[in-house]
Design brief:
alpha/beta; Rossmann fold; binds thymidine-5'-diphosphate
């Protein structure tokens, strides 16, 4: 396990419409109700510069964004996020829950955009100085189901979401391959399971990590709470 302070670093990954945000919120509530300090954050975003980069890369209307530029924007957002938010929180002994991290770039840009998974991984390891989650929760979603979920209620799809189903199929395969290559660092769950069942499985796995002697997260401070993508 990669030790970074006494905190615990958990990433939620999966295709669009997998339900990552719901599960991150459920886990945060469960841990906070025990008095633990949790920082919930997301990518792209999580810092002021990251939120600007988020709108640049996700909103329609910025003209053509080629695949290399797209990968670099996500990596730039992640560099700021790792340095300004995640590492300091782990050093304070907090539990960091991020909605997406490096695996999203490996899957979307490496496999989806065909830039090469190894190249994209190397770029992001450089951007984050090798900061890795203790655990990645992968919510595995069928692309058709993901699209159905995210367009429910006529919600508009962003630049990446509006790609064809075969793009999302490549992403799904890439996520599963990443999990298969390091199974001890992943919890893979089918996204179609009931929300409460998923939440219980995730909490069980996190409890096992909390029992590890390397992890000693701090209790809640009066200022603790959901930072909602801002700076801590
Ligand atoms: P997300 O915030 O999960 O979408 P939403 O706000 O709709 O829940 O992710 C935004 C999109 O960005 C998503 O389609 C995945 C994509 N993405 C990448 O392509 N590469 C990355 O490195 C990251 C972090 C996200």
């Amino acid at each position: 396990m990669n030790k970074q302070g006494a905190g615990l670093f958990i990433a939620f990954e999966g295709g669009d419409g997998a339900g990552k945000s719901t599960q991150a919120a459920r886990l945060a509530d469960a841990l906070e109700s025990r008095g633990l300090t949790v920082l919930r954050t997301r990518e792209p975003g999580g810092t002021p510069i990251g939120e600007k980069l988020r709108s640049l890369v996700l909103d329609h209307g910025h003209g053509e964004i080629d695949a290399h530029t797209e990968a670099l924007i996500f990596a730039a957002s992640r560099a700021a996020h790792a340095t300004q938010v995640i590492r300091p929180a782990l050093e304070r002994g907090e539990i960091v829950l991020t909605d997406r991290y490096i695996d999203s770039s490996v899957a979307y840009q490496g496999a989806g955009r065909d830039l090469g998974k190894d190249a994209v991984r190397a770029l992001n390891e450089w951007a984050t100085s090798g900061l890795q989650p203790h655990l990645t929760v992968l919510l595995d979603v069928d692309p058709a189901m993901g699209r159905q979920r995210r367009t429910a209620g006529d919600a508009a799809e962003d630049r990446l979401e509006s790609e064809a189903d075969d793009f999302h199929g490549r992403i799904r395969e890439a996520f599963l391959e990443l999990a298969g290559s390091r199974p001890a660092s992943y919890l893979v769950l089918p996204a179609h399971l009931p929300v409460s069942e998923l939440a219980a499985a995730i909490l069980t796995r996190v409890d096992a990590l909390l029992a590890s002697p390397e992890v000693a997260p701090v209790g809640a401070s009066p200022s603790a709470g959901d930072h909602g993508g801002g700076t801590p």
